[in-house]
Design a protein that fits this description.
There is one protein chain. The protein is of the alpha/beta class. 39% of the residues lie in helices and 19% in strands. The strands form 3 sheets. Strands 6-5-4-7-8 form a 5-stranded parallel beta sheet. A 5-stranded mixed beta sheet has the order 11-10-9-12-13, sandwiched between helices.
């Protein structure tokens, strides 16, 4: 997670909470009236993206190869998770007794005796996993970050709890955004940067690192250059000489543990207005690379403190 950012981001993309273009949660909720139907005692039929699948009504041994943090946020019982979730500082203490497992380790999956598996659509051995336990597949980017949580709520028979959180979080984040805009100005822009030893990246509005909160929930603005280059693909790799063009009035700087980038010591960086004015909010990359409720609550508090100087 520290040495090769782009490959890592692609891996994370398979296991992070989905955050692409999708119908609004309200639209999914409407469709949800016919999403889960009771098939027989102890099971429900879940209408997944690959078709109807019979799953436990109350799964007790879940392997989350993707969306594990979403499951964790709703109190689901995990017995196996991907390595990136297990390493995440926000979840580490909650997953002490949960095994690390991958889509390639079928023997380990069998040993864990799952009654439900959640996997990504590009993962290996999906057919074989479905022979071990009911396997729900999600395509990263197909659902936005709120719709994804609602779907996990349906899977866990906790749709009402998921919807309640979505409504409450959306309301609180919007209110925080209005307060922030009142303080920094409606036209002020925010950029989300991240770096490794050799490169600098800027993010659009759906690539974790708090981008869903800042741009979607809070309604803050991004610079035109960011909108042009990063809004579609999700992120954009910048050469050092153009970084100032992508810097907003405020910068959220995602800092990976143990990584340094010489550009941060350069005069070019130090002369960016957001830097000279100390309009920098630092976040920990390892704790910010998902878009599940636990991560979103953590970042909402951090941004509220960073922009407004209060908890």
């Amino acid at each position: 997670m520290k040495k090769m950012l782009i490959p890592v981001m692609l891996i994370i993309a398979l296991v992070m909470t989905a955050c692409g273009k999708a119908p609004a949660p309200q639209e999914n909720a409407a469709a949800g009236n016919k999403t889960n139907t009771r098939a027989k005692s102890g099971t429900v039929t879940y209408q997944s993206e690959t078709g109807p699948i019979e799953i436990p009504a109350d799964a007790k041994r879940i392997i989350g190869l993707t969306n594990a943090p979403n499951i964790l946020a709703l109190g689901g019982t995990l017995v196996g998770v991907d390595e990136w979730t297990k390493k995440n500082p926000l979840f580490r203490d909650k997953l002490t007794h949960v095994e690390t497992v991958s889509d390639e380790d079928l023997e380990k999956i069998i040993e864990l005796k799952p009654d439900l598996i959640i996997a990504g659509s590009t993962m290996k051995n999906l057919d074989k996993m479905s022979q071990i336990a009911p396997t729900i597949v999600y395509t990263w980017g197909k659902l936005d970050y709120l719709a994804q949580q609602l779907e996990i709520g349906k899977v866990l028979n906790k749709e009402a709890e998921a919807k309640t959180w979505i409504d409450d979080f959306t309301k609180r984040a919007k209110a925080a955004g209005e307060e922030i805009k009142a303080k920094i100005g409606e036209k002020s822009t925010v950029s989300v940067f991240e770096y490794d030893a050799k490169s600098f990246y800027v993010f659009g509005n759906n690539w974790a690192r708090g981008t869903e909160i800042l741009y979607q929930a809070m309604g803050l603005s991004m610079p035109d250059a960011v909108k042009k280059e990063a809004l579609g693909p999700g992120y954009y790799s910048m050469s050092a000489e153009v970084i100032p063009q992508f810097a907003g009035d405020y910068i959220v700087l995602s800092k990976p543990t143990g990584e340094e980038n010489a550009f941060l010591k350069s005069d070019t960086w130090k002369n960016i207005p957001a830097v000279t004015q100390n309009h920098i909010i630092e976040i920990d990359t390892e704790s910010s690379s998902y878009s599940d409720p636990i991560t979103l609550e953590y970042l909402l508090k951090l941004f509220t403190e960073g922009f407004l100087g209060k908890a």
